[in-house]
């Protein structure tokens, strides 16, 4: 008998076990059935109790990340069904979840405890040469409408970079990013990138 990659129980025989995309080891019949139940759920949505309980017991990093992603996708599907959102419009729901991810320039999130540090994440928004030509041409008009237009472009670029930062955190099943900083990075062709970076974490 060998261990199931997810539940770590010794319940896989020599010729048994299931291989699934995204997993580097075989899983047992029970874990396989529960995954299929989630993916084929109907009615009120998937029942995630089995894997929610398992997530608190798993120590293997790869298995833990697989379970986090599985539960995240199941949660989105359940929310879409409860709000009568067609599956084709699920991306709008994902965007709302991404927007709700917490960010902080410090190493803490007020009112929350950090349960796990995951990885460094980044978000990049690019400004083209037209922006800088306008900036140079209107440098004397810093208090006028041209200045306001430039500030709006910079603010929009910052918002985009932060959204992409949070989207990268979402993709690794995190709900917060700490130590966020924003900087300008020159690119070739007279373009410049506004780069947001930080550490993706799971907070409770």
Model description:
By secondary structure, this protein is α+β, with helices and mostly antiparallel strands. The protein has 2 domains: 2-95, no CATH class; 101-203, Hypothetical protein apc22750. Chain B (Translation Initiation Factor IF3). The protein is built from 6 helices and 6 strands. The protein has helices at 29-39, 49-55, 61-82, 90-99, 129-137, 145-171, and strands spanning 2-3, 10-12, 102-103, 114-127, 176-187, 191-203. α4 packs across α6 (145-171). The model has no long low-confidence stretch (mean pLDDT 79).
Strand content: 15-25%
Distance between the termini: 37 Å
* Superfamily (CATH H level) name of the largest domain: Hypothetical protein apc22750. Chain B
Into how many domains do the coordinates divide?
2
Could you list some keywords that capture this structure?
204 residues, alpha+beta, Translation Initiation Factor IF3, 2 domains, 4-stranded mixed β-sheet, two-stranded antiparallel ribbon, 6 helices, 6 strands, elongated
């Amino acid at each position: 008998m060998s261990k199931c990659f997810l539940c770590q129980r010794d319940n896989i025989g020599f010729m048994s076990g299931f291989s699934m995309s995204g997993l580097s080891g075989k899983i047992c019949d029970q874990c396989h059935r529960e995954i299929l139940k989630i993916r084929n759920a109907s009615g009120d949505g998937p029942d995630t109790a089995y894997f929610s309980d398992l997530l608190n017991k798993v120590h293997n990093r790869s298995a833990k990340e697989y379970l986090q992603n599985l539960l995240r996708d199941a949660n989105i599907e359940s929310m879409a069904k409860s709000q009568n959102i067609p599956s084709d419009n699920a991306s709008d729901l994902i965007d709302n979840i991404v927007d709700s991810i917490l960010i902080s320039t410090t190493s803490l999130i007020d009112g929350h405890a950090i349960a796990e540090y995951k990885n460094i994440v980044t978000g990049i928004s690019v400004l083209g040469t037209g922006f800088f030509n306008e900036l140079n041409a209107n440098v004397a008009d810093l208090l006028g409408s041209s200045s306001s237009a430039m500030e709006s472009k910079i603010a929009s670029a910052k918002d985009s970079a932060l959204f992409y930062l949070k989207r990268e955190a979402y993709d690794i099943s995190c709900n917060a990013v700490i130590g966020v900083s924003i900087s300008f990075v020159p690119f070739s062709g007279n373009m410049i990138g506004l780069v947001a970076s930080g550490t993706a974490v799971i907070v409770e």
